[in-house]
Amino acid sequence: MTQIIVTAVLKSKEGYEEQLLAELKKVQKGSTEEAGCIQYTIHQSIEDQTFVLYEIWKDLQAVEIHNETVHYQEYRKNTADLVAAKTVYRLKEL
Description:
single chain, 3 helices
């Protein structure tokens, strides 16, 4: 069983930082209650409106289950118009 690290880098549209942060905190709360979630932290750049999510999941199946949850689907819908750029990495530790 290999843990999966998800790192997501999101840059909010100008003026939407607070709204995006509120949505990130909502999805964080739901995610940390999932059985497969080991860690889920939100970071904010001190230089611009960039947020970085750092997540550790028990395994790939836990990530896939997470992606189907109601709170994650709501987060995707609620942030679609708030994000200017997003990059997501699924990683394994070597």
